[in-house]
Design goal:
2 domains, single chain, 10-stranded mixed β-sheet, alpha/beta, 436 residues, 10 helices, 20 strands, globular
Length: 436
């Protein structure tokens, strides 16, 4: 399959056929099947139109920000220290799509077959797993063009594999950083837990400077029968960054996946999350916290698909909006005809801290079974003036009072985490956002 040589700039922007050819050349000794996959993804990317606001899946979005002009498809790797993270030492650290540090796993975990390695190494040494799980689920939430761009230009990423019956006792941390003006990054984390495995994986997305970046990332989560996966993603890109991220979660029989996404950075950030419950007893818990201020825009699209009987999903997204910020939530619960005894919940709650902020919510249901329990809803409210007055009457400033009340609003989500240390780090990151 050949690389396109004349893709229109209006469709590809900075990601021209020439830039893609340079990207392929930078991959060196990557397996032929991996390069062919990227070539096919680029052809798909170049052939798809840019989204329009008239598209239902982009309703309320700021289409002015939907541009691919400007970023460098193959940014130079800057010199400097490995990015630090409040979560602790990272098992894998990436800067501008390249791995810069790799912390070895404990010897006993390595002996039991646990892998925390790069996509580059996985493509060479574990091709069957990569073929089965890397971007295996089709995009259903509107960003097919951006997902194809990611698949075409992904340079390297993280691959986490936990064999059957193995429990990883401490969180596995991956950091993905962008650095330098105009850098384009394509972070990816693939997590595969086999039957009855258990692990916690943390992705930390950050900028090493306040320059304008372009981030187009993805993560694939697979929980085999009886597996238990906790996944946390903390996004703190620079305030000039445009970010697109796609999550795909597959949950098998009696497995449990808890995912929590913290959204703080970016000028505009779109996050799509697809969760598929494919076997009886599967449970997916989808959580998100967002602090939006100044003129930030956060666009969140979710899809909970129940494909088997006796499955459960629980979604709770909470947004705090200040200044002229904007959030969009569009969520859909789909229950297939054979998915009787489905228990699905979806809630989006917005705390409005400014008269000029805007929150749009579009929850929905598509039920094709007749023995289910499905509820959904969305609320937008302001801080209780009596609570605010109570705190101010005790010498607490309005800004500090609003921060305390916002944390009270967020605690319902944070308290669902079993790990107190992770709870504390997320709280610290949110506090740092209020201090900016």
């Amino acid at each position: 399959m050949s690389v396109l040589t004349s893709a229109p700039r209006s469709l590809t922007g900075s990601f021209s056929a020439e830039a893609f050819a340079q990207h392929l050349a930078s991959l060196g000794s990557a397996p032929a099947w991996w390069l062919d996959r990227q070539r096919a993804a680029y052809e798909t990317f170049a052939g798809l139109p840019m989204p329009k606001r008239t598209d239902e899946s982009w309703r309320f979005s700021n289409v002015v920000a939907l541009t691919l002009d400007g970023p460098a498809a193959n940014p130079a790797l800057p010199a400097g220290v490995v990015p630090s993270s409040p979560f602790g030492p990272a098992h894998l650290s990436f800067v501008n799509n390249a791995v810069v540090a790799h912390l070895p796993l404990a010897a006993d975990l390595v002996k039991r077959g646990v892998l925390v390695t790069t996509l580059t190494e996985a493509a060479k040494n574990h091709p069957d797993l990569l073929r089965a799980h890397f971007m295996a689920q089709p995009q259903k939430l509107g960003s097919a063009k951006y997902a194809a761009l990611h698949s075409a230009f992904v340079g390297d990423g993280a691959f986490v594999y936990v064999p059957r019956g193995v429990e990883v006792p401490t969180p596995i941390l991956i950091t993905h950083a962008a650095a330098g003006p105009g850098a384009a990054v394509f972070p990816h984390t693939l997590v595969v837990l086999e039957e009855n495995a258990k692990a916690t994986v943390v992705d930390h997305f950050l900028s090493r400077d306040e320059e304008e970046h372009f981030a187009c990332g993805a993560n694939d989560l697979y929980a085999g029968h009886g597996a238990q996966l906790t996944y946390i993603a903390a996004q703190v890109w620079s305030r000039k960054t445009r970010s697109y991220h796609f999550n795909s979660t597959v949950v098998r029989r009696d497995a449990r996946v808890q995912s929590l996404n913290l959204h703080l950075g970016g000028r505009t950030a779109r996050h799509e999350s697809l969760s598929q419950l494919q076997a009886p007893g599967a449970f997916s818990e989808m959580l998100a916290l967002t602090v939006a201020d100044h003129t930030q825009e956060f666009d969140q699209r979710t899809l909970q698909i129940h494909q088997a009987p006796n499955t459960k999903s629980d979604l709770l997204y909470k947004n705090a909006l200040l200044d002229q910020a904007k959030t969009i939530f569009s969520g859909l619960i789909v229950v297939d005809p054979d998915a009787q005894k489905t228990d699905a919940y979806q809630s989006n709650r917005n705390l409005m801290l400014s008269d000029d902020a805007e929150a749009s919510s579009l929850p929905g249901l598509e039920i094709q079974a007749n023995d289910v329990r499905c509820t959904h809803g969305a609320t937008s409210s302001r801080i209780d003036p009596e609570q605010e007055f109570y705190l101010q009457a005790r010498g607490i400033s309005k800004a500090a009072a609003d921060e305390l009340l916002t944390f009270g609003f967020f605690e319902e989500v944070l308290n669902r985490l079993e790990s107190e240390p992770l709870h504390d780090v997320l709280r610290t990151l949110i506090q740092s956002e209020f201090k900016k």
